[in-house]
Specification:
This is 4-hydroxy-3-methylbut-2-en-1-yl diphosphate synthase. The chain is mainly alpha-helical. Helices cover 78% and strands 0% of the residues. The model has no long low-confidence stretch (mean pLDDT 84).
Length: 295
């Protein structure tokens, strides 16, 4: 299932690069203007020593605060692009080029909740790892290193609420957990691969902008442009990779969208089989616990 989902996610992203640009063009312009203005304020007299104002060392507290504000603004616009992208793919929505409202707030709130779930998941895992380390250091150390991946699996099982919120689907955390039964490890491994892909693409984008100094005439204007397009491109890469990934899993639990995402009937049939098998194992384990209690 991991290979199938990863392949479908990559295929969806590959075939919808144009969709991303068509739905997000106004946000892209806004991102460039926003980062150009902030980069102009933060630019030192000697110019930027790195690719962007976002990657420059923080020289003062005020600069750090302004950079945090810029990061928040970039994330807000990035979520808006992701919402427009997912809605265009799944329901052919033709939303206004710039839209900020309750839908955007719900998606951001859900993302914050997922981040908190991930952090809270690490606490019991770390405690268990420390307790095991006191008895057998090898097992405890192994669990300590596996804890972030286990937390990632937990977060991914809840993460379907993100595309659901973009489509105004009232999917709850409980329903997301149940709907992704049997898919947790496939989601976690896929998320890890997609994260590595996003990291590689951001690195390549920074490298491309870094070597552009040798191709473009040295000027303050070009430094400001380069500084502005780096965070813009980074947000587009993250949206393109992760929105495609989450949309694919949403299609697995909402069959009516599967065809639009390139998923075959065999794909979500296999997903249903894995969910059924996982539910059966859970019921068997629960019955075993009940029998022990009766004794």
């Amino acid at each position: 299932m991991f290979i199938t989902v990863l392949e479908r996610s990559l295929s969806l992203a590959q075939h919808n690069m144009g969709t991303l640009l068509r739905t997000g063009w106004a946000y892209i312009v806004l991102l460039i203007a926003l980062n150009f203005a902030i980069g102009g304020v933060l630019m030192p007299e000697s110019g930027f020593k790195t690719v962007s104002y976002m990657t420059e060392p923080v020289a003062a507290v005020d600069e750090g605060a302004l950079r945090l504000l810029a990061a928040a603004a970039n994330l807000l616009v990035g979520f808006s692009i992701a919402i427009a992208y997912v809605r265009r793919i799944l329901i052919d929505a033709g939303d206004f080029p710039l839209t900020f409202g309750g839908r955007t707030a719900r998606v951001i709130l859900n993302q914050i909740i997922l981040a908190l779930i991930g952090l809270l998941s690490l606490i019991p895992l770390a405690i268990v790892a420390l307790l095991l380390a006191a008895v057998t250091a090898g097992v405890g150390l192994l669990l300590f290193f596996l804890a972030p991946f286990i937390a990632l699996m937990v977060v991914q099982r809840f993460s379907v609420i993100l595309p659901a919120a973009a489509l105004d689907d009232p999917l709850t955390l409980k329903e997301s957990w149940r709907a992704t039964s049997g898919l947790g490890w496939a989601m976690a491994f896929s998320a890890l691969v997609m994260s590595l892909l996003a990291g590689f693409l951001v690195f390549a984008w920074a490298l491309l902008l870094g070597i552009s100094d040798g191709l473009m005439p040295a000027s303050v204007l070009w430094q400001q442009i380069r500084s502005a397009v780096f965070p813009m491109g980074t947000m587009l890469i993250l949206v393109w990779v992760f929105a495609s990934f989450h949309a694919t899993f949403y299609g697995l639990i909402r069959e009516r969208f599967a065809g639009r995402l390139g998923l075959k009937p065999a794909d979500y049939t296999k997903a249903d089989e894995q969910k059924t098998a996982a539910s059966a194992r859970a019921r068997k384990a629960l019955d075993g616990v009940r029998r022990l209690r009766r004794r």
